[in-house]
């Protein structure tokens, strides 16, 4: 509901559109902390909480779209991805006999990233290196999310994480293409719909972790 309201605010150029965006992460956190008492904290990992806090910081920095805050916003999301990587590794360590799927994810994303990066080229200007670093962390995060789907108990929940990260990548791809090439005002709605969906899937996965482990 918060996401739809924010997109409507953006589409109709209503005031307080930035505030409506910043309600997304807190709303998801409220969902995590107000579940049934026996589930409320069991599935909430410290590293995930740090990750989502940095996602919220990134949201705050990118409320105002300009070059000055774009880089700090990217750095916040990179830190978000770094802690998500730690979270996924805690859930399920990398095993040599299960490397195929994560490596395939890395390969596919590397190919897609190569074409997107090549398409934007000089349009990225001073953001060429930060975007490259960001793409690296996104690919690693996606590979580790895929790895969680191979957990003997968490495999179903792992798909929430993996699909969430994939939707997050779609959101980021639309964002960077629109930011540096298309410049369509209402394409931002697609960015936010996919971003909000991604964050929900990740939160839903975290909420299900303890249930999967107990079963």
UniProtKB/TrEMBL annotation:
Signal listed as a keyword: no
InterPro entries to which the protein is assigned, alphabetical: TMEM86B-like
Record GO cellular component, one term: membrane
Keywords: Membrane, Transmembrane, Transmembrane helix
Pfam families: YhhN
Membrane-spanning residues: 12-34, 46-65, 71-91, 103-121, 127-146, 158-177, 183-203
UniProt keyword annotation of tRNA-binding present: no
Molecular function GO terms recorded: hydrolase activity
The protein's name: YhhN-like protein
Protein source organism: Sediminibacterium sp. KACHI17
């Amino acid at each position: 509901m918060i996401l739809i309201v924010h997109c409507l605010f953006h589409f109709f150029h209503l005031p307080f559109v930035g505030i409506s965006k910043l309600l997304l992460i807190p709303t998801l956190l409220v969902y995590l902390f107000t579940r049934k008492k026996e589930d409320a904290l069991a599935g909430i990992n410290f590293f995930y909480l740090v990750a989502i806090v940095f996602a919220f910081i990134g949201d705050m920095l990118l409320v105002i779209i300009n070059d000055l805050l774009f880089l700090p916003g990217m750095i916040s999301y990179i830190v978000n991805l770094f802690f998500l990587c730690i979270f996924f590794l805690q859930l399920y360590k990398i095993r040599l006999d299960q490397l195929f799927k994560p490596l395939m994810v890395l390969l596919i994303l590397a190919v897609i990233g190569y074409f997107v990066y090549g398409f934007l080229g000089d349009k990225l200007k001073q953001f060429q290196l930060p975007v490259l670093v960001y793409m690296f962390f996104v690919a690693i995060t996606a590979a580790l999310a895929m790895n969680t789907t191979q957990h003997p108990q968490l495999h179903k929940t792992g798909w929430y994480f993996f699909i969430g990260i994939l939707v997050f990548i779609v959101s980021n791809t639309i964002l960077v293409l629109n930011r540096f090439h298309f410049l369509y005002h209402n394409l931002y709605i697609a960015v936010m719909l996919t971003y909000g969906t991604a964050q929900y899937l990740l939160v839903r996965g975290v909420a299900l972790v303890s249930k999967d482990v107990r079963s």
